[in-house]
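cron nightly-structures :: item 1 of 1
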Amino acid sequence: MDNRDTDSKYEECIYFLADKLKENNNSSNTLIHSIRVGLKIEKDGYDANLVKAGFLHDIFEDTDIKISEFKKYYNDEITDLILSGTANYNIQDDKKILLDMYTRCLEHSKEALLLKCYDIEDKMQYYKNSIDKDVVLLHDYKYQLFLTMSKKTIYKYTIWKQMEKEYKECKKQWHKNGLIKGDEKYEF
């Protein structure tokens, strides 16, 4: 099977994101993270729209692109998948931002939850090694909230199981580092 056409369509997403990040002088690790997310989704056999959304999932958070400009290049399904998991920073409370975002994913579709799961899971290794207590507490809440809200819908999927496993590893590391007790349960 010749994958050149498919690869070309995905490369176009990467170039598009890279150009937009460059226009906005974004120096975060968005590009590499987004490539990993898109490739993981593609490797797991999901359709082209979900893969493209994986490559582009942070575009509205990390660039100044307008939705109308984005829609000139990408269909409504990709746009809606990305927007469902885009943080609304007009909300001033971190926990409320997460609740709002995960609620929108849950209301949108199983695919939106899967996209968000791939996104979160990809960065867990980074936060697992954090020594900043405030960062750790927020991510402990974030992971527990997402796993709780998404469990009924996507708990059978490999990526959800992987995230749950990674979360347990994070908790062990954070506990070992004295950043959490290890048995925190949050009220949602």
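cron nightly-structures :: done
The chain has two domains: 1-84, 95-188.
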